[in-house]
Amino acid sequence: MILFLSVSIFLATAVGSIGLYLWLEARKEALPQRFKEIVGEAADAPRGRMVASAGEWLGKFRKRFAAKASTEIELVEMLSGKELTGGRLLLNQAGIRSVGAYQVYLLIRWALPAVLVVLAVVYGKVVGIASKAIFLIVLAAGIVGFLLPDFALRWKIRKRQEEITDSLPDALDLLVVCVEAGLGLNAAFIKITEEFQLSSPALSEEFDIVNREMVAGKPRQEALRALTERAGVEDVKSLVAMLIQTEKLGTSLAQSLRVHSDSLRLKRRQKAEEAAAKTTIKLVFPLVFLMFPALFIVILGPGVIQVINILLPTIQK
């Protein structure tokens, strides 16, 4: 009953917070639509009335549109991966790039410890735990609540980076084929984006962002450097360094990509062999602490019982 009460309070608080946030975001998104509807209705009216109505609504919502524009600029900065630090960089590397994601992350980061502390206090009072024990529980709950969002975010980053690392050699093979077939680097990036949407969505998204930035007029070197910031993978950094060096020196792009692809594939194979070699050492702990005790009980248990049944009457006499 107490556990059910604690879980219910936590779920109610979480659902209420999420619902409030979604309601506020829905209102923000509805403002431009309402403005368009009002302007569209005013288009059928006389010209003077339309101008007055549009000017009135522009003056009324100027601040809100300015705030929304600033959030859109923030989203573009997150996509470019330029001059990002702290939580914004972590969210960018985790692939969370929606508008307002950083604010939601901060809200969870600071609200979760408070919620867990309140639940810990309520649980301690209901159960009747001593004050010192409640203090320790509250302290542990606060620490867990503060560290849990960062831990979950870094876990997501690690999984995304592993996906990119595993798929990068295959993407380089396709890149080599496209370049040798006569396609430009931008067209090759588009091909990678299309072919890896199912097998590696993270890698497809990163190359798609690079291509969009170059199409928008951003220099190729800056777009590639932004890729290294967003990915945070050493293999991507080495690939970007090779592409920039090849462009500066004027060497063969296809040959450089082929050599780099072979080195990445060799590195991936060596990593798999290393993981396979570590398997035998990792199996020692479950064997010693889990399987061997059960085997000893099954094998030696009947003999020990017989020895006890034989020696116990003798000892009692």
Describe this structure in words.
With 317 residues, this protein is mainly α. The chain has two domains: 2-151, no CATH class; 160-276. Helix content is 87%, strand content 0%. It has eleven helices and no strands. The chain has helices at 2-42, 47-80, 86-93, 101-127, 131-180, 185-195, 201-215, 220-231, 234-249, 253-282, 284-316. α1 runs antiparallel to α4 (101-127) and α4 (101-127) runs antiparallel to α5 (131-180). The longest helix is centred in the middle third of the chain and has 50 residues, at 131-180. Residues 38-55 and 60-83 have low confidence and may be disordered.
The Rg value, from CA coordinates, equals 30 Å
List unreliable stretches of 5+ residues: 38-55, 60-83
SSE series: HHHHHHHHHHH
Quaternary state of this entry equals: single chain
Shape: flat
Helical proportion?
A: over 70%
Total DSSP helices: 11
SSE arrangement:
Blueprint: H1 2-42, H2 47-80, H3 86-93, H4 101-127, H5 131-180, H6 185-195, H7 201-215, H8 220-231, H9 234-249, H10 253-282, H11 284-316
Helix pairs in contact: 1-2, 1-4, 4-5, 5-6, 5-10, 6-7, 7-8, 8-9, 9-10
In short:
By secondary structure, the chain is mainly α. Helix content is 87%, strand content 0%.
Main features:
single chain; 317 residues; mainly alpha; 2 domains; 11 helices
